Records
---
Amino acid sequence: MYEAFYQLREKPFSILPDPDLIYWGRMHTMAFTMLEFGMMNNAGFTVITGEIGSGKTTLVRHLLKRIDTSITAGLISNSPQDREELLQWILMSFQQPFDGTYPTLFKRLQDFLYGQYAGGRRAMLIIDEAQNLGSEALEHLRMLSNINADKYQILQLILVGQPQLRDLLLAPQLRQFAQRISSDFHLRPLSEDDVARYIDFRLRAVGAKRPLFTVEACTAIAKASGGIPRMINILCDTALVYGFAGGSNAISAKLVGEVIADKQQYSIFPIKHVVASR
């Protein structure tokens, strides 16, 4: 809609995960470094947490693009609860047959993992939205991590989830699980300065030749979004629509204020929960 008006190749603020548009500020750089560290050092468990919309899934997608060819990766994005359902989803993620009783499923996974090891490969399982896993499922993951070949860890696990995942892993009954975590990081919101740099980066990445948001507009977006990238994207995208509709060459703080006010009053967008006090 507004791309031609602002001379952009494509929309700069899509809410869909885009590994090619990651803003490599300190938070995302550190989170990805911990993911890479876990992958390269064959860590038993790696845990990455962050608020909804903070960019966790985007980092996972970027990791999958860069994964070593000697690693077979599986990705689960839902929340299996009991041990049989968990095994089924794990086998499905590795493109293995997933029918049968629990002993059959366990034997099939074990044979698959040993087969990977025998072929000079290792398996890495990534579970997104892991905060929805129950204690039973997490404990079963710990048990599955005991499938080893001599001293080698042949199933590597990466858990990605919202802050509730950290709270869950601190429960006394999961103490043994927590002791297996070799690499972890909590992805915090962007600072006010980083929000301005994030906006500029996303615009330039799609061909912007000049800043489209004023400094004051970026500040207003930083406060209203709480520094959460998805919130920033929604506000910026809507502001560009408003700017296009009004023929504005630049997005001002006044225009952003109108967007925020409309979102608070008429939209299901939960901005009222993150707006900083004025």
---
Amino acid sequence: MSTSAPNTQQMHFAIRYLTRYRYDVDVVDNINALRIRPATGGRQQVDDFTVRLTPEVRQHRHEDYFGTDVIEFEVTRPHRELVIDAHAHVTTEPQPEPPTADWSELAAPAYREAGAEFLIQTDDASGHPLLTELQAEIAGAPSPLDAALLASEVIPDRLEYRKGATYVDSTLADVLDVRAGVCQDFVHLGLNLLRAQGIAARYVSGYLYTRSAEDADQSGDGAASVEVDTHAWIEALLPSAGAEPRWVSVDPTNRGLTGESHVKIGHGRYYADVPPIKGIYRGTATTELEARVTMTHTEPVG
């Protein structure tokens, strides 16, 4: 039996997601849903994944409506600390060449069906002068692919990436008013710009390895590690003449198509569909949060 040569463009990552909540008094009935497990499919394969919880409780795993892996758990007994310690090994590959087709393909019934709810637009910034200006600029792109790539360029051109400029619940109008935000805000704007042109687009949550092996700190075993934040980018459904439309990833924070350094967790219509952790507890405690994601560029597992 013949075997294929290894893909030299593959990247292999060890990812650790560590979150620690400290409460100043006891809390109970601490119910949480985690969306932190990298996805398997397409250009990405999860080689292994584990989650350790403290206090130790039973985990319940399922896929949500959009196919994202969800881990749910509940701590019923009194506690003053909750630790979520997840480890994954992931293999990624570059994106294939994106499909090209003209604007007329967006009207095909097959495209409209495939795009479904990812075509639905919101109007929380309807009539905002900057939004109107940007939508007109995207409308001038020669093709849907060009529109997606143009959106990934004009957003960082016109908005400043600045932590603290917005909050998780900031509206698109808030972002446009301050002309600044973070990756989540850039993606929400990009979704609006593409959907305004009839291009189905969805919000992607994941991790991004932001250093090369050459300039990262080297550990004793030769692995290059870096601490990162959870990241976000866009998947646009692009038509292909004579073939099925295909989801193509663009990153408006980093200007262009995503690559093998992007590790996808899941997708939804907006951030609210794929938050890394969402929970509630019973009690009057004040919470102190410590969160850290470490990505290490490694050799293949096994």
---
Amino acid sequence: MNGERAGWARFTEKAFYLAGFRDRTLAIACSSNECAARIRPVLEELEQNRTRIVLLTGDPELARTLDARIVSVPPGRAIGSVWRALCSSPRVALIVDPGPAFLAASRAWAVRLRVSKLVFVDALGAVSGADGSRVSFVHLDELMALLSAPADDSGKRTPLLREVEAALRGGVPAVNVCTADALGEELFSYAGSGTLFTLGRYVEVRRLGIDDFDAANDLVARGVAEGYLAARSEEELDLVFANGFGAFVESSHLAGIGALIPHPESRTSEVASLYALTRFLGEGVGGQLLDAFCRTSTERGDAFLFACTTTERVAGLFERFGFRRVAPEDLPDEKWSGYDRARRARLICLRRDAAV
């Protein structure tokens, strides 16, 4: 499998995210008409994808500039009125209180409409951690920690974070915060540009199914291109996918992969092709996959679990899970059948015995 087959479109990050947004409704809160030119292309892509947009703004001029139909909502049947408007136009606008009340008013509408996602377009963009770096993902417990000990400029973003909390508790599954310039990158890519807030942890580790293989194949190719994974033949890749596990974000987006390949002759298992996308490294995706492998290996009754890497950072991850460095001779003989001698000389070999 080489990533493309006749009649099949190659997996892309944007296509994967757009598939998740299709036939859903997103609320985008944007307070200034100055953002119009920057967010218009994103709205157009979403609408071509059959994604409905509710623009929340305190500036009617923004709605007019973006050709968003302004909806007047009668008391008592607001959701129905917005739904009917969206049936005839995939881009509508609700005019909310401007100024200091804008965040709360936007959050209230997102909760009232029970949208799939709320995006706050904010001039400051992503939330920063204590070291000043961008925080890509935050679940509710982590959000409460941020609110109790603000890390950025003495809590100047506390009002926004409070509204994010209220949205999550009110039933909105996900809230994004990003700048207007980076809206497309935040919604359509793994790298992202802002901060995604969710109610609970959003990473699920499970076995790969055949419908995951296109994404997994692209992820392996990325790992090879970045030098983290060794290139494999089609036969070797088939073995990886057949024994593969994926770390999935929001149930569908593949953030990391790895395989637990059995070696029946020695009653052992090997961790292979472990790789996580950069955005998710801080979320412990590699560790969650490795934890699943350790548990599965124990359930199989393996004598030991082993892995090989050329990267010290990856070796350190394995060591945190009870692996120890060993000589190549301490691994099963079948591992080295036909193995490249030059690469073998560069490997760090690691082993986790059943007693660990």
---
Amino acid sequence: MPKEESTKNGLGDLAAKAGELTIGGDLCVRRLGFGAMRITGEGVWGPPKKRDEAVRVLRRAVELGINLIDTADSYGPSVSEELISEALYPYPQGLVIATKGGFDRPGPGVWKENGRPEHLRAACEGSLKRLRLQQIDLYQLHRIDPKVPVDDQLGTLKDLQSEGKIRHIGLSEVSVQQIQHARSIMNVVSVQNRYSLADRSSEDVLDYCEKENLGFIPWFPLAAGALSGKSSTIQRVAAKFKATPSQVALAWLLERSPVMLPIPGTSSVGHLEENVAAAALKLDSSGMQELEKAA
């Protein structure tokens, strides 16, 4: 992309300031990614109201140095993956597109687990086609379907990996016990659980990932705006560091663990730039402690 575009607003390769994380031994990514769920329509259903803006958001994310984009076949469904391909193909060298499978989408805001092997295989094949890839760098089981034997679900991903369609495998919304079981069957390189300053119910999973050097990708990292300023503590810390509450919440995540890889999403270029600017924000120990006590 043109150099003059990449340095627009003086932000340049800002995501690099978040540092890097190597996933699976060979995927080197910046520790601030982009979650591509919100570039779809309301209820994560259908096309976005502003398609051109969605395309601009994706291109701007790459210009700002983000090299991991997280999506799923269920976002739209299919819409998010199609927009990523439209906006970024042919992909810049080093860009990692992580996607997921394991849900049916019967309607707006409706999510139903589907871990049947035939569904997972079809989901992966569909993602490859929409994203115009020969191999998906990181393919994640979106949820473990309680209606299907877990080993059948994990075994399907392992087979897809053996066939060369998946490079690395990740899990989403899992317990430590479930991760351990999955790792007895196949190599798991990342975990994507809900986690933020306001919701640390996956603290034990994060600690396990840090111990085992697995990437931890927190979804809902800003609690859908709940951390944008309602807490007087977050407002106070934000004022101290001349930052926004959202930037403080993201900076806290980056400081919390070296395996943390937040993926805040948005449908606005302005909000994207605000989020990525958090990569340059370094909280001191007193700021970290103040935030943790207030959460």
